[in-house]
Amino acid sequence: MSKTPPSNRPGFATRAIHEGYDPKDEKGALVPPVFMTSTYAFDTVEDGGAAFRGERNAYIYGRTKNPTQTVLESRLASLEGAEAAVATASGMSAISATFFSLFQQGDRILVHSRLYGNSFAFFGHLRDRFGFDIRLIDMTEPGELEAAAAEGAFKAVYFETPANPMLDIVDIEAVSALAHRHGAISIVDNTFATPYLQRPLEQGADLVLHSATKYLGGHGDLIAGIVAGSEAHVKQIRQIGLRVMTGATMAPLTAHLILRGLKTLELRMERHSSSALTLAERLSRHPAIAQVIYPGLAGTKGHAIASRQMSGYGGLIGFYVDGDYDRAAKLCNRLQLSTIAVSLGDAETLVQHPASMTHSTYPKEEREKLGLADNLIRVSVGLETAEDIVADFDAALAGLR
Ligand SMILES: *Cc1c(COP(=O)(O)O)cnc(C)c1O
Predict the structure, then answer these.
(1) What distance in angstroms lies between residue 93's CA and the mean position of ligand 1's atoms?
(2) 164-185 pLDDT tens trace
(3) Among 206, 236, 262, which residue terminates a domain?
(4) Which end of the chain lies in a sparser environment, N or C, as judged by fewer CB atoms within 10 Å?
(5) What is the Cα–Cα distance from 208 to 187, expressed in whole angstroms?
(6) Residue with CA at minimum distance from ligand 1 atom 7
(7) Centroid of ligand 1 to alpha carbon of 164 (angstroms)
(8) CB of 339 within 8 A of CB of 220?
(9) What spacing in Å lies between the alpha carbon of 397 and ligand 1's midpoint?
């Protein structure tokens, strides 16, 4: 079904609700059953042997495959416009399973310098302990990427867009085309945008991965990941990265919760985006705020590229308080409705202070060089009434000294 040409394919929300499941196949159950089983029975030894030889597409053991996951995988593959997808236990396991499957010691990988903090740490381990040649470069500067590419053969480019935590916008089409010219593949972490707002594979990327913990699940009640791409890549990641190297399988109940979350993905992303724009505009007019970063604001770097490659700007905002670490901390502490917490994409508005929290994995000099300053605050705008969110920030700012 994922190979149906886009022209006569059902719409995004329809696929988010129906793709990959027919109640007729499961005794009429409207919602896909949760298959709580670790192993699967074979009729005969010969039957089992055929499954192990890959002669038929059978379920063998729950670390590699489970029917509830299969529904989720086909649904997400469809939403991302991919041939296939593989579910994993977390976003980090989606990333590690991908790298452990497709690359090896000595491979050069070009990585955008601003990343989710633990992805940054992961690439540090690949470089320092596993002999990968990891090059951190600023992919929002085309010159830097060209220069790094010209230095020698590389196997992949890896980036997030919008990138954590400063919402850098990387040009998916241009960077993927450059990778292809050099015989490399392009891997995009699409967590911040979701396939509703941005589909990297349609713009030339080869693999797209997610922390499904965030918007895909959407309710702050699970940890999960997903990788989508070609049948061949996904098979490799399932058989090596998932089955053997990490063993980080998504629990069937988690797959069920994400399937439930996906039903409202479109509605949620619309609301996250509109409320984030409202808050970004309000904050950018506030005298106690030095700068607001939101791809939907014309003054934000990357706005033009975001407008081309995204259909909305998402729910994440970064802003610099006029002042230092203490003032930033004080503002967070004064918020009443918004919760101080890492993670994002939940119904609740979450604020966090990257310098002391998510990006404390970056050395201080590196952090400052990248603009991850002490007065930066990141907001994941939730689904509460937009005016209540704005009022919370207004009140916290009003008494700020
Ligand atoms: C949270 C996050 C991850 C890691 O995902 P987990 O589900 O927490 O393991 C990776 N990339 C981005 C952009 C994230 O926000």
Answers:
(1) 9
(2) 889 999 999 999 999 999 999 9
(3) 262
(4) C
(5) 6
(6) 91
(7) 9
(8) no
(9) 30
Residue 92 CA, closest ligand 1 atom number: 9
H/E stretch holding 332: helix 325-334
| CATH code for the domain in which residue 85 is found | 3.40.640.10
Region 301-317: mean pLDDT is 98
| 164 CA: nearest ligand 1 atom | 13
User: What pLDDT score was predicted for residue 6?
Assistant: 56
Q: 173 and 305 share a domain?
A: no
Tell me the average pLDDT across 304-332.
96
- Give 109's pLDDT tier (boundaries 50, 70, 90): very high
Quick check: CB of 214 below 6 Å from ligand 1?
Answer: yes
Mean pLDDT of all residues belonging to the chain: 95
Give me the pLDDT at residue 7, please: 63
| % of the chain surpassing 70 pLDDT | 98
Highest mean pLDDT among 6-10, 53-57, 301-305: 301-305
Residue 90 in contact with ligand 1 by CB distance below 6 A? yes
CB of residue 191 inside a 6 A radius of ligand 1: yes
Closest CA to 284 of 300, 273, 271, 270: 300
The predicted structure's pLDDT at residue 105: 97
CB 119 less than 6 A from any atom of ligand 1: yes
Question: Which atom of ligand 1 has the smallest separation from the CA of 93?
Answer: 9
What is the per-residue pLDDT for 1? Answer: 40
Q: Which residues are catalytic?
A: 63, 116, 189, 214
Query: Is 210 near ligand 1, meaning CB less than 6 Å away?
Result: no
* Number of folded domains that form the chain: 2
C-beta of 383 in contact with ligand 1 (< 6 A): no
Spatial neighbors of 346 by CB under 8 A, at least 6 apart, are 214, 218, 219, 220, 380, 382
3-state DSSP helix/strand/coil % of the chain, to nearest 5: 45, 15, 40
Which atom from ligand 1 is nearest to the alpha carbon of 213?
A: 7
Q: Which of 227, 262, 297 is the last residue of a domain?
A: 262
Buried b (16+ CB within 10 A) or exposed e, 287-306: eebeebbbbbbeebebbebb
Q: What is the pTM of this model?
A: 0.96
CATH number of the domain within which 341 lies? 3.90.1150.10
Flag whether 2 is in a domain: no
Measure the CA–CA gap between 192 and 169, rounded to whole angstroms: 11
User: Domain limits at 122?
Assistant: 12-262
